[in-house]
């Protein structure tokens, strides 16, 4: 199969393992990986700049399908010398008295953001990380983003009762390349190359059934001929001398 496929992905998502499987299964179809800002991922797919995107839910799903792949752990990021440094896990109640930054590219579905409201919202998660590193406030993000923006002067621990984000494969409802999309769905879901959910293989040409060679009809055998029994000869009496 020839052609090309463009897969967009948001920061923190690592599509490398799926790209390797794609290369093994479709070596003649070029796969292009493009990292895009989280706020732009869905729009890139709708505009046709990408065939599909690995993005976070909840989010913009207008005119798009979304297949959830896995759920990320939510963590809170704070300075390494913070009073929470010895904690192994925190709850939203623990953050009530602290400033909590919410960047504009935040994808967590908050009903109500905990903590003290900040003066303004940073543009990106990277900007919010820099502010936290300066010793001002904390940040709640998916664990993959905390690892992506890892710094030696920061620490992150799980936040037990926070909303979670899910990473999903998103593609247009009216897809113009359904066969390649089906291949990508199979790869990210871990299907094997011979899965029945993949594109149908061409059927093998049918061969005419072999006919057994005709055998000459067997002759019916009649009853075996009976042999006539001849009467036994009587011995003649011997005369005396």
UniProtKB/TrEMBL annotation:
Q: Where in the sequence does UniProt note compositional bias of the Low complexity kind?
A: 199-229
Write out the biased-composition intervals (Basic residues). Answer: 230-241
> Which GO MF terms does the UniProt record name?
DNA binding; DNA-binding transcription factor activity
Q: Which residue ranges does the record annotate as region Disordered?
A: 193-241
| Residue ranges annotated for the LysR substrate-binding domain, each copy included | 18-191
Instruction: Give the record's keywords alphabetically.
Output: DNA-binding, Transcription, Transcription regulation
Q: What is this protein called?
A: LysR substrate binding domain-containing protein
- Supply the source organism for this entry: Lentzea albidocapillata
């Amino acid at each position: 199969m020839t052609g090309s496929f463009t897969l967009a992905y948001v920061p923190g998502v690592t599509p490398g393992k799926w790209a390797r499987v794609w290369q093994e299964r479709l070596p003649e179809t070029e796969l292009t990986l493009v990292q895009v800002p989280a706020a732009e991922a869905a729009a890139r797919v709708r505009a046709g700049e990408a065939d599909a995107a690995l993005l976070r839910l909840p989010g913009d799903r207008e005119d798009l399908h979304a297949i959830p792949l896995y759920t990320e752990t939510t963590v809170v990021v704070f300075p390494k010398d913070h009073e929470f440094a010895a904690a192994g896990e925190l709850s939203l109640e623990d953050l009530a008295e602290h400033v909590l930054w919410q960047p504009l590219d935040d994808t967590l579905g908050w009903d109500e953001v905990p903590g003290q409201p900040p003066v303004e919202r940073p543009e990106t998660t990277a900007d919010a990380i820099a502010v936290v590193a300066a010793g001002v406030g904390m940040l709640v993000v998916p664990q993959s983003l905390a690892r992506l923006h890892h710094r030696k002067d920061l620490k992150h621990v799980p936040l037990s009762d926070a909303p979670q984000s899910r990473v999903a494969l998103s593609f247009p409802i009216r897809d113009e390349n359904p066969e390649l999309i089906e291949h990508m769905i199979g790869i990210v879901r871990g299907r094997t190359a011979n899965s029945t959910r993949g594109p149908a293989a061409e059927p093998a040409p049918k061969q005419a059934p072999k006919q057994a060679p005709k055998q000459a009809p067997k002759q019916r055998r009649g009853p075996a001929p009976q042999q006539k029994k001849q009467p036994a000869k009587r011995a003649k009496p011997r005369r005396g001398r």
